[in-house]
Amino acid sequence: MPDPRFFDRSGPFSLEALAGLSGARLQNPSDGERLIGDVAPLESAGPEDVTFLDNRKYLDAFSRSGAGAAFIDQRLADRAPAGMALLVTREPYKAFARAAQAFYPIKPVLPRRAVSAVIDPTAIVPEDCDIGAHAVIEAGVRLGPRCQIGPNTVIEAGVELGEDCRIAANVTLSHCRIGARVILHPGVRIGQAGFGFAPDPKGPIKIPQLGRVLIGDDVDIGANTTIDRGSGNDTVIGPGTMIDNLVQIGHNVVLGRGCILAGQVGISGSTKLGDFVMAGGQAGLAGHLNIGSGVRIAAKAGLMRDVEPGTTVAGAPALPITSWMRQVAMLQRLARKKDGEG
Q1: Which contacts of 158-166 are long-range, i.e. CB under 8 A and separated by 24 or more positions?
Q2: Active site residue 185
Q3: Among 175, 185, 251, 288, the one annotated catalytic
Q4: CB 224 within 8 A of CB 188
Q5: Which of 272, 268, 266 has its CA nearest to residue 299?
Q6: What is the pTM of this model?
Q7: Can you tell me the distance from the alpha carbon of 283 to that of 264, in angstroms, rounded to the nearest whole number?
Q8: Is the peptide bond before 12 cis (omega within 30 degrees of 0)?
């Protein structure tokens, strides 16, 4: 059960209500009035909790679960324990996520300006914003309605934020325009100078970084991620993109809509990603690449060439995943053969 010191729970909700908000279908409509008080994992769920099964790897745990209800694909419904109400859907994890959002909605912003906050008189800060302790908001900044700015965050001159943004503690923003409903987790750095210099025998000559960072609506950026401003063109993060912790995005990078980048991904300057690209943890992308829409990049892959739309790549240097798997299998066979000869 989530710790009530940190999480406020709503509900209970009837199974009929949960089916309606999640898009699932109750296998037994007579269960509709049954009340559910919380969401929980398979192993710890009790008779008043709803859980989910999205991976066959956990079928045994599902069959033993004490949950009162579960989101599940119809093909696995016959593995449910007796007495469990089933919410049938082709996307159990997504349905569970919607239910969890209902039980644990985002807390509303309460209007506040901490006494220790420093707000330039030329900044536009609506009265319904929440400005935390020791936050600094410089000249010409524009905040949209209902923004939340965490303690010790610095928003430098000229930055603009759309409505309902949630900016956590110790964030630094400069040279950027940010859309609506954007979430920035602690320690995010956006708009600092990119890594640009001209080689010279006497030492590198820094090139002024004269672009911005443009962030679309509904973007979520994880803790301690850094996004450099463009050198001339802008760095662009498309709407609906989800970026994990400790990601580095170089100058002039362009991400399309709905991209997903896991922890420690690094993208070098001027590389462009299409819509809905997914990159696993610690994947690295060289500069000046074009990565097509729908590309899937395996964890720790190293991309040095352009990738066609819809391709799945793995390895370093990255290859289409079928080619990479064949190479791995061949190396394993050679290794076994050598071991046998020894």
Answers
A1: 159/191, 162/217, 164/109, 166/106
A2: no
A3: 251
A4: yes
A5: 266
A6: 0.92
A7: 7
A8: yes
